[in-house]
Amino acid sequence: MEHSGNLQLKLVDGDAGYVLEDVPHLTDYIPDLPTYPNPLRSNPSYSVVKQYFVDVDHTVAQKIVVHKDDPRGTHFRRAGPRQKVYFESDEVHACIVTCGGLCPGLNTVIREIVCGLYHMYGVNKILGIDGGYRGFYCKNTIDLTPKVVNDIHKRGGTIIKTSRGGHDTSKIVDSIQDRGINQVYIIGGDGTQKGAAVIYEEIRRRGLKVAVAGIPKTIDNDIPVIDKSFGFDTAVEEAQRAIDAAHVEAGSIENGIGVVKLMGRYSGFIAMYATLGSRDVDCCLIPESPFYLEGRGGLYEYIEKRLKENGHMVIVIAEGAGQDLLSESLQSMNHQDASGNKLLQDVGLWISQKIKHHFASQHKMAINLKYIDPTYMIRAIPSNASDNVYCTLLAHSAVHGAMAGYTGFTVGLVNGRHAYIPFNRITEKQKNVVITDRMWARLLSSTNQPSFLSHKELAEFKKEKQHQHQLLDDENCKDNKSEPKT
């Protein structure tokens, strides 16, 4: 194998099209760093575990369903403890920062980074950066110990507070350098991880022995490469409570309609999974699947048909769905929040009013509509048991990676295995529901709703998907045939 590396890309090419998209290491720019035996060797909790340490060559495949003649494809470095570490316990001065919106599990991740550093590696200097990125240079820090974080996983939100924006690379790295911090754990969405990548680049430019580790956070589950983001299971579970309430309201009155708006700015995963989990939803509308209101095959016609059949119905709509249908007067005029996200209008309230107006003006039937928006209730709750376990493993993976000298990486579950992923791979695009895949077909089968797509539109979606697959196949073939990079 030959190796290629620069600030953006670090590749290892092998036989049969094997490509390891590796993450940076401190030794890439600080040669001859000393190593130390991993303290876990003498930790009584781990002494009985056989083969606890991850082999240096262990990788995780991004794609596991392949044809027999396919190249082995892209891999990522497997997460976990290494036999050698690049920090002594007494020298570690770590910090943790949370940025962006709230999400179930933030406190759990904070807790497990602190407890992982303390109990596994004997680290006792850990700071919480108060209030997001700007907290590095204009706010106080919080000393974090296992005692301080002991019960925080039972609470929603983040004990070290969060904010959007405020990213000033020079000021942040100056603060890191002035405080003597050498491990930085950054929890946030794609914008936050882009900021983390810039921080890593500046740290590397200055030649500092500082490991930068990211833990990706988004309640929408729209981060590519990883199986799912933490907090997603909790969000889906809590969303079903709102759906249950809408179903009760709708079913308790003649021609009752329950409308539930769920989070999903550009990706409808929460709406789709909550709908599938509930089985009480008659129509699910997401950003990836266009729909229309008027005319044959439109939403109004389907609502009327469903009410005549069942006497009530439940509609779930993601916050980013139908934004193209809102009139110009309701548009947000491309205003953005501090993170650069487009400000969306309340499509749930808008569509509720449109449905009411339509049936009132048609004089066909009287409807009773109830609108439920559980957005902030969903994202502000503590994580459930499943997400608590996931958050623990993510936090520990980040700690193991930083102690082993890896930097400029984020952690995530890839095909059921925890891996270290380069920043650029999770920030290059957003993951979306593919409406020509089986999961969306399962939803349509569950709700019996129309696809709202014409045959022409469906053909265009399929053509676009085939084109994407062809590009991926061409890229794999190119990787398989190309000479090792130098």
Give the secondary structure arrangement, pairings included.
Layout: E1 2-5, E2 10-13, E3 18-21, E4 36-37, E5 59-61, E6 73-78, E7 84-85, E8 94-98, H1 106-121, E9 126-129, H2 135-138, E10 141-143, H3 169-179, E11 183-188, H4 190-206, E12 211-216, H5 232-251, E13 256-262, H6 269-278, E14 283-285, H7 299-310, E15 312-318, H8 347-362, E16 368-372, H9 375-379, H10 385-403, E17 409-414, E18 417-422, H11 423-427, H12 438-447, H13 455-481
Parallel strand pairs: 3-6, 8-9, 8-11, 11-12, 12-17, 13-15, 13-16, 14-15
Antiparallel strand pairs: 1-2, 2-3, 4-7, 5-6, 6-18, 9-10, 17-18
What does this protein structure show overall?
This protein has helices at residues 106-121, 135-138, 169-179, 190-206, 232-251, 269-278, 299-310, 347-362, 375-379, 385-403, 423-427, 438-447, 455-481; strands at residues 2-5, 10-13, 18-21, 36-37, 59-61, 73-78, 84-85, 94-98, 126-129, 141-143, 183-188, 211-216, 256-262, 283-285, 312-318, 368-372, 409-414, 417-422. It is of the alpha/beta class. It is elongated and about 80 Å long. Helix 1 (106-121) packs across helix 10 (385-403). A hairpin with a 4-residue loop joins strand 1 (2-5) and strand 2 (10-13). Strands 1, 2, 3, 5, 6, 8, 9, 10, 11, 12, 17 and 18 form a twelve-stranded mixed β-sheet that branches. Strands 14-15-13-16 form a four-stranded parallel β-sheet, with helices on both faces. Helices cover 35% and strands 17% of the residues. It contains 13 helices and 18 strands. Residues 1-7 and 478-486 have low confidence and may be disordered.
